[in-house]
Amino acid sequence: MRELPRVRYADCYSSEASEETVIAVNIGGVKHVLYGDTLNRYPETRLGQLANRATDCPEDLSALCDDYDSSKRELYFDRDPGAFRCIMELYYSGKIHMKRGICPMCFMREMDFWGIDAEYLDDCCTSSLNEVETELAEIAEKVKTILDDMEGDATATRVQKCQVFMWKLMEKPESYLAARVIAIVSFVFILLSSVVMCVGTIPELQVKNAYGQLAEHPTLECIETACIIWFTVEYVLRFISSSNKVRFMFSFMNIVDFLAIMPFYVVLILTHLGTAMMELANVQQAVQALRIMRIARIFKLARHSSGIQTLTYALKSSLKELGMLLMYMGVGIFVFSALGYTLEQSHPETMFTSIPQSFWWAIITMTTVGYGDIYPKTTLGRCNAAVSFLCGVIAIALPIHPIINNFVIFYSKQRVLETAAKHEIELMALRSKEEEQGSPDHGKIAAQRTRASGGNSSGWDSAAVNASHSDTYIPLLEDTATGSKRQPVHKCKDS
Fold it and tell me: Considering the domain boundaries, does residue 154 fall inside one?
């Protein structure tokens, strides 16, 4: 093992320099002995500045640390000792790697304090930091949205305030009790409309119309009309209260809402055009097709169900895995259908008349459905069916786990974002209440620190000392009232 060199500490009250500068630092109760030649590799960092100013007086050194014990020649920092061990890797290896269990944002605050730029992080740590920054940005956006809903715009006119109130009433069930009631009523109407659509197809409940065709029962038609009226009023109110009409019209969920109510009015118009018009076969088929489009109403449930929304976003983020699944299945279907057609040609009663017709057999075999309408009759054909079955199971099973994992991650992330946004709002309300009360506890703590330091509070009141104390929260939004901003980062370069 390498023997530590003998050193002589410098006297801060004399001009005699040390043979080699040695700094003793106490980080959160853990003592470290650091050497000046190591710290001077990055002289612009806080530790590099300490190494260059080791011969200064205690009053000057206290501006860079929380406290300085001149008898022990030891500098004290109220920082995280675990994070400091990672920070020290920069001076030995030129890179910093965050250990497991350390919050990336808290670690960035530690790097800001020690004057180290984020470019010295390893690539693996940078990706994890970017993910956390993205999550914090989403939390900040959610907090900003909630605050905007709570405060509103003081310069808005009465019409604009009414428009905002109507939008919250129709779109944000958590804003008012009436909005929650409207959301529940809308949910009930969606279920009722879906049930009526299904029950109306039962032959025993249908009646013959004037053209001798089976039609829905008049009672069910009345219920259907009531549901459509509710959907129409809801859609019109949401359109009127929307601040961006074009964006509203082309939104996916609003397109679903429009498709849910449009068939009713089209059928109503075609029905009242006259007997001659309704005698046309193509018009009757169009009416039946429009009635089938009523199934789009079930997608309205996604507006009131966070679980369906989470599933939609998870599938959207898993497009690559879904594409991989379709590619595997497509290749397997093509290969096994061609083999099945070729191997079954020798049998006189073959069911494989062509390769495109064999696609259906390959689909139901690889997806393990197996209707039994088409099946091989030769030995080689059955072996091909067994292999296609096994390959289909593997092709479906491989991409399923990433899709499920994306769903779990997205669902957990949504829960964390909602909880974090609520906690941040509670913290902001608590801080504003403390500011209104004048923060008397903070004044008492400052007075106790002044008395403990013998009345000399110049070092403790400096900006560097205030920045050295660890915080228990991460500020997501800048406090515009106090004008507080993030502490600038000192870039460090190799000497």
Answer: no
